[in-house]
Amino acid sequence: xxxxxIVWAKQQWGDTHFMTIDYDTLFxxxxxxxxxxxxxxxxxVGLIGRYNPNNVHWKAVFEKQKPSLQKVxxxxxxxxxxxxxxxGGAFMITTAGTQALAKNxxxxxxxxxxxxxxSIADDHLISLVIRSCGLSVIDGRSKMDCQWKASRDPRxxxxxxxxxxxxxxxxxxxxxxxRGTEIEMRNYFRRIRGRELLKR
Length: 200
Prior knowledge:
Layout: H1 2-13, E1 18-21, E2 26-27, H2 32-38, E3 45-52, H3 56-73, E4 85-93, H4 95-103, H5 122-132, E5 136-139, E6 144-146, E7 164-166, H6 172-178, H7 182-193
Parallel strand pairs: 3-5, 6-7
Antiparallel strand pairs: 1-4, 2-7, 3-4
């Protein structure tokens, strides 16, 4: 679905940066676009996000499914680190990245269907794909508080320079511990922006 979305975006707007966010991701302050664009320090930057160089689970999956991936992708690039990836709550593929995906056949069959050869999640598979295009992955964690599951109450993180927070979708155990619901958390940030509050 990620590759199909990039194909659609390219058809609509031509070559451009491509950003994906989950519905429970919040942009907390102005300047998210400037922050991401400022991390593009060379034409070799292909992917920007909350980078994890060693996810033990996805590393094990990669090692097990490597032969299947090689059938569709070819040689695994030397600079690829098994298990690396970006957190899927928010990441950006640069214009250089989307152009390289097209040039290297990742936006058409069979490479576009690489997902069918592995169970690696898109946010970890995209690192392998970007590196296969000869591009680099940049860690944006200095202003991104992005995790798979919420580990803290997001209220107040905007005062600490955080621009992107994920997830705002909270488990019932988290809500009980922090005495807050997802709507209350969202309304906290809507008040800051002067927006109409969500109803329960």
